[in-house]
Amino acid sequence: MKSHLTPLIAWLQAGPMMLVFALFFLLPLAFVVTVSFWDYNEYEMIPSFTTRGYADTFEGCLAELPGLCTILKTYLETVKLCFLVWLLTLLIGFTVAYFLAFHVHSKTWQIVLSLLCTIPFWTSNVIRMIAWIPLLGRNGLVNRGLLGLGAIDAPLEWLLFSEFAVVLALVHLFTFFMVVPIFNSMIRIDRRLVEAAYDAGATGWQTLCNVIIPLAKPGIVIGSIFVITIVMGDFITIGVMGGQQIASAGKMIEVRLNALQFPAAAANAVILLGVTFLIITALSRLVDIRKEL
Amino acid sequence: MPAARPRAFYVLAGFFALYVAFLYGPMLAIFTLSFQGPDGGLTFPMNGLSLHWFAKLFAGGGIVDIGVALLRSLRLGLLVMALTVVLSVAAGMAFRKSFAGAGLLFYTAIASLIVPSIITSLGIALEFRLLDDFIHWLGFEDWTTGMGLYTSGLGAHLSWTLPFGLLIMFAIFNRFDTRLEEAARDLGATPWQSFRHVVLPIILPSVVGIGLFGFTLSWDELARSSQAIGAVNTLPLELQGLTTTVTKPDIYALGTITSAVSFIAIFAGLFAIQALQRRQSRRGSDAGSGMV
Q1: How far is C-alpha A248 from the geometric centre of its chain's CA atoms?
Q2: What pLDDT, in 10s, does the model give residues B139-171?
Q3: Model ipTM?
Q4: Looking at chain B from residue 81 to 110, which residues have their Cβ under 8 Å from any Cβ of chain A?
Q5: B54 vs chain A: nearest CA distance in angstroms?
Q6: The domain spanning residue A265 has which CATH number?
Q7: Which helix (H) or strand (E) holds B21?
Q8: Model pTM?
């Protein structure tokens, strides 16, 4: 009797979560795609099929060739930003995870140090952005220090509300997403493999490149997916740290929304979704996420 | 214990220390600066020492109605926490049996985690706008909007916290010794009894962890709330609004208060987890040793 009830119980247990995702994720996505093909005027959206949202978005893309139109330029900038942040978070995240996994031997210390890295993740992102103002502002610590040392004559203006600040803040906020999965992969590496490499005469670098990095690959891929998708869709960090002056894929959606052009915003969202999906598909061919938990 | 650490250890330890300084340094700067006197500015050096900016925040009439936003975020956060825990544990239990749609639910959760927040937020906003239009069309002229803190806002937050909850449940049960449940069943426990008296006590520390994620992620949520929260603002939204105009340390004071709530939640959570683990190892006979 129990056996034929089991699927029903499982359904009852998983149902509420499925319902939440259906109502607040799947259905909304469907609406985004639908509305992206609707018409609009200054104050409302009009449910009739048109590709105007997309046409407006790609306006001038053919005419301006070989120059780049706004959307292509913006996407190119966003991808460049994404690549830079990805590279930095990967290098820092890998090093931190490597230290925690291979050089901290006591379990207690491992937990304490991991927590130290995790706690900022549980605090507000906006605050962690604002927190750079006293350091990087015109009269901030960095400028004062450099002026005091005589390294510069006038305060550096590009430290805050600039692309530099955006990259710095993104790395600051999201390196965590690299550390966790890479650490998780590293901690499962059989220590005897490392010893075997050592016994066979491999140098530290050779062990790192030929044993540890290949085995940590799933973590690297998962971390990369997180960081890339976050940066691709980001509009808050870019807004706050860029002084609302820097364009990005996510920011374009926000601008359309502020103008109440919902179909155009939706068209932009579909494009962003498509680009993100392509990146993830390419990356996830490298790894099976479910096996890694 | 190896006698001497290799040189790489010290290099990497130095790197780690720098990383931690990079993580916490800026935050400490604003916490410190929020305690300035009335003449304080946005940068160092400190201009006096007082609680002036905190008093100003709570006196009202200032930039934002901080007390209301704070309570609003707190209520929403606690509700999100409770729902995240219950729904994640339930779904986590379901995944231990096989059921049709398991793959779908798993990949939906992953997708909800990595689809850019602005898209989810926009979608939820559209959903509620269309719902409003539909209700008007039905003839309910007085209807204003279905969008609000506990409808669209709650949903937006859950779409962000539930994937974390589910992933933690996966991590728990991948390391769970199922023989403990079999033993309970052999001794005549009903499924509920074996969950209540065997499974739950063992996974409880991690369940507290899910709650911690649920609360803190909701408390600080911004990107998904941006379009979907309705007419009122949560604390992070108020804070973000301030970043473009502020020239006084009141924004730092607000940041300090927000972070203080986060830290209280974090330390309460971590303390509870530790207490539970201790209790488990003290009187849990061999129940805890099932976990690797």
Answers
A1: 13
A2: 888 888 888 889 999 999 999 999 999 999 998
A3: 0.88
A4: 86-88, 90-91, 93-95, 97-102, 104-106, 108-110
A5: 16
A6: 1.10.3720.10
A7: helix B7-33
A8: 0.88
